[in-house]
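Protein Record: Sequence and Backbone Structure Tokens
======================================================
Scope: a single protein chain, as residues and as a discrete description of its fold.
Tokens: labelled as protein backbone structure tokens, with as many entries as the chain has residues.
Position: the record begins directly beneath this header, with no further notes in between.
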Amino acid sequence: MAFGSMNSGDDAPMSDINVTPLVDVMLVLLIVFMITMPVLTHSIPLELPTASEKVAKEDKQPKDPLRLSIDASGAYVVGGDSDTKVDLATVTAKLKEAKAKNEDVIVAIAADKAVEYDYVNQALQAAREAGISKIGFVTETKAQ
């Protein structure tokens, strides 16, 4: 008669659910949330600077990067003129000139798929010597 009730004479198992462990867990969670909630809602007042409309509009304008192309044979082309192939010393000089004109110049390196990595590395080294830190790589996506 360990599982049955004392009043009934049958030996049926007790079918009541014991909710004591559930209540214990819920009370612990309630206490934990009561302690952590003030920490989550705490905020620090900050006075952030605001930009004028003129400056904000100028910052949103995309800047045209200086394109540095490297063809499959390793020849360098600076800018949009694809007929003028230059050597590495000229690339460094043109990058320094672009850096002198615009402090925030961006260089976009467009290297051919078949070019050796050494040519790309030399272009990166030339940009580093010119003091340019914003460098991107041009890629093409396949048409679907």
Summary: The radius of gyration is 35 Å. Strands lie at 66-70, 76-78, 106-111, 134-137. The first strand starts at residue 66 and ends at 70. Residues 1 and 11 are 6 Å apart (CA to CA).
